Amino acid sequence: MIDLHTHTFFSDGVLIASELVYRAKVKGYKAIAITDHGDFSNLDFIIPRIKKASKDLSACYGITVLAGIEITYVPPDLISKAVHLSRKLGADIVVIHGETSAETVPEGTNRSAILSGADILAHPGYILEDDVKLAKKLNVCLEITTRRGHSKTNLHVAALAKEF
Predict the structure, then answer these.
(1) Is 75 helix (H, G, I), strand (E, B) or coil?
(2) Rounded distance between C-alpha atoms, residue 23 and residue 90, angstroms
(3) Within 13 Å and on the Cβ side, how many CA atoms surround 108?
(4) Which residues touch 130 (CB under 8 Å, ≥6 apart)?
């Protein structure tokens, strides 16, 4: 079991990285990515700290810990720039906060996320068929989530993903 979209207290989580990773290990996870919410105001704060912690936690707990970021509410025209900066700062995985139906996210975020070179488009809401095809072509994963609100569109996302 793996989880590639988790948060610490650096964003809307409640645990420090060590506790989050250890709890995942105890539950039988083989890998976890720590992907706190980020934008240009905090990428340079979060990514290096999680990157440093991830190496030690991986070694001590025997679980793969990936340092990442969930780029959140960045204007679509700047998403590619944020992905590039995140990679430069050492992010192993880049998640983009998609156009979930549970929140107001700038229109065009899903398409920009797919074109940006991100790894995962989180909770993409009522994603368009053409965007799913593009995600497949560019090897961008689409998230299916259990989080309340964001999970309302799982059937839509899963049906399109299965079709394409």
Answers:
(1) coil
(2) 24
(3) 7
(4) none
pLDDT in tens, 113-160: 999 999 999 999 999 999 999 999 999 999 888 777 777 788 899 899
37-65 in b/e form (b: 16+ CB < 10 A) is bbbeeebeebbebbbebbeebbeebebbb
- Give the bridge partners for 37, in sequence order: 70
The answer to whether 118 and 96 are in contact (CB under 8 A) is yes
In this structure, which amino acid lies at residue 13?
Answer: G
Cβ 7 vs Cβ 39: under 8 Å: no
Q: Report pLDDT digits (tens) over 11-38.
A: 888 899 999 999 999 999 999 999 999 9
Domains present along the chain, CATH in parentheses: 2-163 (3.20.20.140)
**Closest C-alpha among 79, 83, 65, 84 to residue 21:** 65
75, 108 Cβ separation under 8 angstroms: no
From CA 45, how far away is CA 144, in angstroms rounded?
Answer: 28
> To which residue do tokens 């990428």 refer?
43
How far is CA 33 from its chain centroid?
8
pTM, whole model, 2 decimals?
0.92
